[in-house]
From TrEMBL:
Descriptive protein name: Uncharacterized protein
Length: 36
């Protein structure tokens, strides 16, 4: 299933890359909140 594939990708991702992704998502969310 797509969900399982996504989980597999996240698990296989290096921790640093995962952290960067999370930070980018957080920044995008913050910008989105400021626009409202």
């Amino acid at each position: 299933s797509p969900l399982l594939d996504a989980v597999k990708i996240v698990v296989e991702m290096p921790l640093i890359e995962l952290t960067v992704c999370v930070l980018e998502l957080f920044e995008d969310y913050h910008k989105y909140r400021q626009l409202k």
